[in-house]
Amino acid sequence: MAEKDRNQIPTADFTSDEAYLSGFANSFSSEAIAGALPGGQNSPLLCPYGLYAEQISGTSFTSPRKLNQRTWFYRIKPSVTHEPFKPRVPADCKLLSEFNQSKSSATPTQLRWKPVDVPDSPTDFVDGLFTICGAGSSYLRHGFAIHMYAANKSMEDCAFCNADGDFLVVPQKGRLWITTECGRLQVSPGEVVVLPQGFRFSVDLPDGPSRGYVAEIFGTHFQLPDLGPIGANGLAAPRDFLVPGAWFEEGHCPEYTIIQKFGGELFTAKQDFSPFNVVAWHGNYVPYKYDLSKFCPYNTVLFDHSDPSINTVLTAPTEKPGVALLDFVIFPPRWLVAEHTFRPPYYHRNCMSEFMGLIHGGYEAKADGFLPGGASLHICMTPHGPDTKTYEATIAQGNEAGPHKLTDTMAFMFESCLIPRVCPWALDSPAIDPDYYKCWIGLKSHFSPEGTKDPIEARENGPKDSR
Ligand SMILES: [Fe+2]
């Protein structure tokens, strides 16, 4: 409970990790005042302490039990208590949730962006959010959008509500202090947070200039991937997902604004209280965070390079088995031990589309040019793979490469079965790298019909022919 002084940012940890509830897809309950949670029923005639009961449904009422997600809030005033929504002014907004020919472009070209500059002018999380690409439609409840944000100030007297889909936020620079209706989360670079459709939240930026990536999915929610032959353990463990405990603030907040993203457009509504007035809640539709350093990677231990799906943290499925609307895959620090193997990622064309970002360090397939805070997009069936420098350095090393640990790296990929269209402001961005294609142009032919069938053996045994 807090009487919030909106001009004061706390200096202590926003919420220590010990304060969270833990588990993935659990049914949680939490109360900031003992006894605030009604027992035995969800909607009593009179709730404890005079609270209002309100349900948020993240799936249809009739979704199968294993997929059904909803949470009950017990709050000081219900969220309906606000003035009418109006289009936000100014309307200049670089957000999209419908990807068609009118507002976005198709291109098979490999795209890469340098890190986006954090603006000098005061910019909060909402103003600093812009769409890069996406597919489908939030109205049709099928599709996704990929956004980035670059901001430098906390949201003040306003909360954001995304009616279109779930946000998976990947901070790259600067911590996020996120207040939600379920409670508060501190999310540092190296952690990710999921903010489900419809939740109201506010983002403080305790470190000032901040930057990151956001994947938004329409019409479904993230799950943990099946583990198949890996067994019962490995990859992301359910207990490492953290959910905030109940926290509320009360008091008169004149001119408080709810900013609602609806169909990719922003609307605002005024109310005179904070939406973070939930004293107790229970349910399984919740915001949660995950520390990527807790991911337990699996990989080849003898030869060849595993497909990147081996490092899936979360997946948003489609109705087709094994086909994701959006996979969130990471490339964490790990040992490389494969023998007689080209260890970097293989050259590749994919029916899926791949958006990549880099949180810190370097990426094993790109010696130059792919920087923390930058991004790349390799769309359906567009070729991609290691740059010339990486290829030449790898084969020069030959078969002598012993076990090697990749350190100081955390790259990630959003991969989708849908083919994204790209926003004009992303294509025209000063951050786009017009020379990206040149990183492969230098790849030369090593083909020699008269050469040996086993070049590694030939190299290790020295030159045999005297041509
Ligand atoms: Fe690929």
Automatic annotation (TrEMBL):
Residues of the Homogentisate 1,2-dioxygenase C-terminal domain: 293-447
| Enzyme Commission no | 1.13.11.5
Ranges for the Homogentisate 1,2-dioxygenase N-terminal domain? Answer: 19-292
Where is Fe cation bound in this sequence?
Answer: 348, 354, 384
Entry's InterPro entries? HgmA_C, HgmA_N, Homogentis_dOase, RmlC-like_jellyroll, RmlC_Cupin_sf
Entry's Gene Ontology BP terms: L-phenylalanine catabolic process; L-tyrosine catabolic process
Whether Iron counts among this entry's keywords is yes
Give the gene that encodes this protein: LOC116214071
Q: Which family does it belong to?
A: Belongs to the homogentisate dioxygenase family.
**A GO term, aspect molecular function:** metal ion binding
Q: What class of enzyme is it?
A: oxidoreductase
Known Pfam families for this protein?
HgmA_C, HgmA_N
Q: What name has this protein been given in UniProt? A: Homogentisate 1,2-dioxygenase
Q: Cite the CDD domains for this sequence.
A: cupin_HGO_N (cd07000)
Highest taxon of the source? Eukaryota
Positions binding homogentisate in this chain are 363, 384
The opening ranks of the lineage are: Eukaryota, Viridiplantae, Streptophyta, Embryophyta, Tracheophyta
**Catalytic residues identified in the record:** 305
* Reaction equation(s) it catalyzes: homogentisate + O2 = 4-maleylacetoacetate + H(+)
Q: Pathway listed for it?
A: Amino-acid degradation; L-phenylalanine degradation; acetoacetate and fumarate from L-phenylalanine: step 4/6
- Which keywords does this Swiss-Prot/TrEMBL entry list? Dioxygenase, Iron, Metal-binding, Oxidoreductase, Phenylalanine catabolism, Tyrosine catabolism
User: Which cofactor is recorded for it?
Assistant: Fe cation
Q: Which GO terms describe its cellular component?
A: cytoplasm
